[in-house]
Every structure is written in structure tokens, then in C-alpha cells.
TrEMBL record:
<dbReference type="InterPro" id="IPR037401">
    <property type="entry name" value="SnoaL-like"/>
</dbReference>
<feature type="domain" description="SnoaL-like">
    <location>
        <begin position="66"/>
        <end position="171"/>
    </location>
</feature>
<protein>
    <submittedName>
        <fullName>Nuclear transport factor 2 family protein</fullName>
    </submittedName>
</protein>
<dbReference type="InterPro" id="IPR032710">
    <property type="entry name" value="NTF2-like_dom_sf"/>
</dbReference>
<dbReference type="Pfam" id="PF12680">
    <property type="entry name" value="SnoaL_2"/>
</dbReference>
Length: 192
């Protein structure tokens, strides 16, 4: 391995170790691989089910509500967060600096979304790859990009598992690249 390759290899590892919860590299890699594998299996199973049968009325309604929320987000006129029930529980999975369960809509918006948006110069814009519905659960697989206040781009890929009731999100599990998020979160100071 050349010195340049060694530098590139070691830099993310040492950087990651300083911003992630303490644990072994092998465990972090295993946890990430397990999460990705679970998401792929879930998405593949839903895709096969969708091909085999049509969506129920509830599934169509839930999927349409989430897609409309994402369309509003992309247009800058709203967001999927508008669908959150007041007592919605939002869990950010993994080992990012924001990973935990937020017990309410307001707690999630206050601790994550508002500070995130305060770090952005140009708003985050989503681009959906796929949306799946199964019963009361909608899964959204998407990319999002924007420009941070320091002029650097922020780009991440997300998978959200949204449990719906009466057209509202009541529980969510969100997966994304924690290394990209942590670098952004620590590098960019929120606007006042």
C-alpha cells in the first residue's frame, strides 16, 4: 500500500473513531452491514409482494400521503415532517451523533431538524429512489442533497420506515450514512 493510500485508508477510520460512540471497528462494520442487509431484504420482499398483488386502499392512501410530503419538500412548500403525529416516536438508527429515539414530533424537530436546517445555506432536496407500502408501513428509499453554510455540499442516502395511522406518521426508523452526517454536524455551525 502506498503512503497516499495508507493516508486515505487511515484518515476516515481515525476521524470516525473520534465522532462515533466507542466500539470496535469490526462491530461498527458488522452493524452497518447488518442494517444494510436488513433493509435490502425488506425492500426486496416488498418489491416481490407488490409485483404479486396490488396495494390495498390503506396502502395506497399511506403511500400517496408520504409521496405528497416528499413532493412538497422537493418544491420547498412543506415536508414529510408535516405528517408527524404530535406523539410520533422518531428513531435515528445507528451510531450518528443524533442517533436515539425522540419521543415526540416537537422533540425531533427541536433537536434534529431545526439544527440541521440551521446548518444549511441551500435547503436539502430529496430525490426518491423507491417508495414501498405494506399495511400501515411505508418505506422510502431516497437521496438528499443541499449546500451547507460553509459552502460545502451535503449529500446522503436514507431509508425511512414509517408506521402510519389515520394518514399520520406515528413511528419512524431512519437509516443513513452516519459518517457523512457526523462530519457535517460537527463541521458546520448552525445559524443563530
Amino acid at each position: 500500500m502506498s503512503p497516499h493510500q495508507l493516508y486515505l485508508w487511515r484518515k476516515p477510520l481515525s476521524y470516525t473513531a473520534t465522532i462515533c460512540r466507542p466500539q470496535s471497528l469490526a462491530r461498527r462494520i458488522f452493524s452497518a452491514a447488518l442494517g444494510i442487509a436488513a433493509a435490502i431484504l425488506a425492500l426486496a420482499g416488498l418489491e416481490a409482494r407488490a409485483a404479486a398483488q396490488s396495494l390495498s386502499e390503506t396502502e395506497r392512501r399511506n403511500k400517496a400521503a408520504v409521496e405528497a410530503g416528499f413532493a412538497a419538500w422537493a418544491a420547498g412548500t412543506g415536508s414529510p415532517y408535516d405528517l408527524l403525529a404530535d406523539d410520533a416516536r422518531w428513531t435515528i438508527e445507528g451510531y450518528s451523533l443524533a442517533s436515539k429515539t425522540y419521543p415526540s414530533r416537537e422533540a425531533f424537530l427541536r433537536e434534529v431538524i431545526r439544527p440541521f436546517n440551521a446548518r444549511m445555506k441551500a435547503p436539502l432536496k430529496p430525490a426518491i429512489r423507491n417508495v414501498y407500502a405494506d399495511g400501515d408501513t411505508v418505506i422510502v428509499f431516497f437521496d438528499a442533497r443541499g449546500i451547507a453554510r460553509d459552502g460545502e455540499p451535503y449529500a446522503n442516502t436514507y431509508a425511512w420506515f414509517l408506521d402510519m395511522r389515520d394518514g399520520r406518521i406515528v413511528r419512524a426508523s431512519a437509516f443513513f450514512d452516519s459518517v457523512v452526517f457526523n462530519a457535517f454536524w460537527t463541521r458546520v455551525t448552525p445559524a443563530d
